[in-house]
Amino acid sequence: MNIDIQTIRKLAHLARLEFDETKEQEMLQDLNKILDWMDKLRELDTSAVEPLTHMSEEVNVLREDVAFNAISHEEGLRNAPKKDSDYFRVPKVLD
Which GO terms describe its molecular function (predicted)? Predict the structure, then answer.
């Protein structure tokens, strides 16, 4: 499969890209190289290859997510620059 200059222009329009003539030619050559490479990959016999679902053999290595309070309410307010009883005071954002 080969791409022509009209296809490049249509793709550029859809992607909201602008190319000058030299860049159009570079894109044309690059996309044709990519498509040639994909054609070479299609020639490989992959019938005995298992499909990949993950790129590595590792299973979830993350810790269990357990919710807990690390600091108390009072400790959280202790370093607040401004506080009002049990709440943080912040600058007004909306009129």
Answer: asparaginyl-tRNA synthase (glutamine-hydrolyzing) activity; ATP binding; glutaminyl-tRNA synthase (glutamine-hydrolyzing) activity; transferase activity
